[in-house]
Design goal:
The protein has about 230 residues and is mainly α. The chain is built from nine helices and no strands. The protein is elongated and about 55 Å long.
């Protein structure tokens, strides 16, 4: 059972308990219908108090560090912050059955591992691998997490079937995006194993070509209409 199901079950249980107690107590002094109505309101309120709130979007931007260790430290800190955000996000209903949280979790673990890697920390200057790792941790990945938060918010507030279907399609697109970023992370790991360093331009070209293969821009830009949308 996902964390969200556990929390929601607790919320429902708490609401039911309050509902029963209120129905009995209030029903003694008021008409039974009025007593049960007030009890129901209290029960719903208790259930909502146990429902997890959506996390706030991650803040992007800021000047890049000027040292190797500074960049790797910032990458590790960003991965930790994203991990905390995802733990709150994936406790909500939209994420049942979606592999996005697992893919992002693997990415964050990989970023943290590379940020602590002695080989990378021992490099004499900021090269393509370190620059790309920092970009993945502070730009590409937070962008995906923020889009996941935005879609989660729409899914929980919109009532239309078409709009919810569009949100679910967006999430599938983000799953592909996370998979592509995983390939970029794997290339950095391969560079470390081989003892080589690819240039940042090669990494950028790789990501750009992979995004274009399935129209990734339309997924990342939610202002663009989808052909299957409402």
């Amino acid at each position: 059972m996902k964390p969200g199901n556990t929390i929601l079950s607790l919320g429902v249980g708490a609401g039911a308990a309050v509902l029963s107690a209120a129905g009995l107590v209030l029903g003694l002094g008021f008409a039974p219908v009025v007593g049960m109505a007030i009890g129901a309101a209290l029960g719903v309120g208790a259930g909502l108090m146990c429902t997890p709130l959506a996390p706030k979007p991650l803040v992007l931007g800021g000047p890049p560090p000027v040292t190797v260790n500074g960049m790797l430290d910032e990458a590790a800190q960003s991965a930790e912050q994203m991990g905390q955000t995802m733990r709150r996000l994936t406790s909500r209903p939209l994420w049942d059955g979606s592999p996005l949280d697992e893919r992002i979790g693997q990415m964050l673990q990989g970023i943290s591992t590379l940020a602590a890697n002695p080989t990378l920390r021992g490099r004499q200057g900021i090269d393509g691998d370190i620059q790309m790792l920092w970009s993945l941790a502070t730009d590409y990945m937070p962008t995906i997490v923020n889009l996941a938060i935005e879609n989660d918010k729409m899914h929980s507030t919109f009532s239309g079937r078409s709009s919810k279907a569009q949100v679910e399609q967006n999430i599938r697109g983000l799953e592909h995006q996370a998979g592509i970023l995983g390939e970029a992370l794997d290339r950095i790991e391969t560079d470390v194993v081989k003892g080589t360093t690819r240039s940042i331009a090669e990494h950028d070209a790789f990501l750009r070509s992979r995004f274009e293969q399935f129209g990734g821009d339309s997924v990342l830009d939610l202002s663009k209409p989808s052909p299957t949308g409402p």
